[in-house]
Every structure is written in structure tokens, then in C-alpha cells.
Amino acid sequence: MVSQGILEENKKSDSYVYEITDRGRECKQQLQNIYNDDIKLELVESLNGQSSQFLEMTSTYAFLLDLGYDQEGAELKAIELKPHLSGYAEEVANYFHHVIFN
User: Fold this and answer.
1) Helical packing angle, 52-67 and 71-81, nearest 10°
2) Kind of pairing, strands 15-20 and 7-12?
3) pLDDT tens digits for 81-99?
4) Assign residue 68 a region: left if phi > 0, alpha if psi is -120 to 50, beta otherwise?
5) What angle do CA 41, 47, 11 make, to 5 degrees?
């Protein structure tokens, strides 16, 4: 998204901060016009409040489910693939099934 000019990346201390650009706001508005009824704003706000590590494990878990893994298998495979994020696995699985698919 940075390379597309939708987000601007700035390094502050030991972390990166991302901010939406004017082009990103235009893109967001276009998407809202097209998909307004399909976007769950509460979910977007909830995801926005999560850490990058949590979101990384969530995307890995969702990808594995999409590949056909069952819930337990996806959680175990996600831990295998992302051992540095293993502390998030159970929380991500619960979040995914209770918040995202609620």
C-alpha cells in the first residue's frame, strides 16, 4: 500500500507508523461507495485497535482456514509457521470465530 501511495510509512523510534494519504482517502471513499453495505465498521474499528503481531497471526490463521485446515489444524499450523507469535494463537482463533464471524 505504501508503494501504491495509499499509505505513508514513517519510522518512529523502533516502530513504524502508517498514515493514510490523500490518495488512500480517495480509494477508501470509492470502496465505501461500492461496498458500503458490506463493510462492517465495528469490525474495521476492532481490527484497527489490534497490534501488528495480532493481525499477522490473524491473517495467517485465516489463510490456513481458507486452504482447508480445520480450526485446530489452522491454529497448530499457524504456531508452526509463526512461532514468534505463538502467544497470540488461541486469542486469534477465538477472535476470528467470535468477532469476525459473529
Assistant:
1) 130
2) antiparallel
3) 999 999 999 999 999 998 8
4) left
5) 120
Supply the pLDDT for residue 1. 82
Full-model pTM = 0.66
**pLDDT (tens digit, 9 = 90+) per residue, 21-64?**
999 999 888 887 777 666 677 888 888 899 999 999 999 999 99
Q: How far apart are CA 37 and CA 46, in angstroms?
A: 18
**The C-alpha cell of 78 is what?**
499457524
**7 touches 19 (CB < 8 A):** yes
Tell me the three cell numbers of residue 59: 491473517
CA distance 83 to 91: 15
Each as own residue / partner, the long-range contacts of residues 68-76 (CB below 8 Å, 24 or more positions apart, any chain) are 71/97
User: Using CA atoms, how far apart are residues 66 and 59, in angstroms rounded to an integer?
Assistant: 10
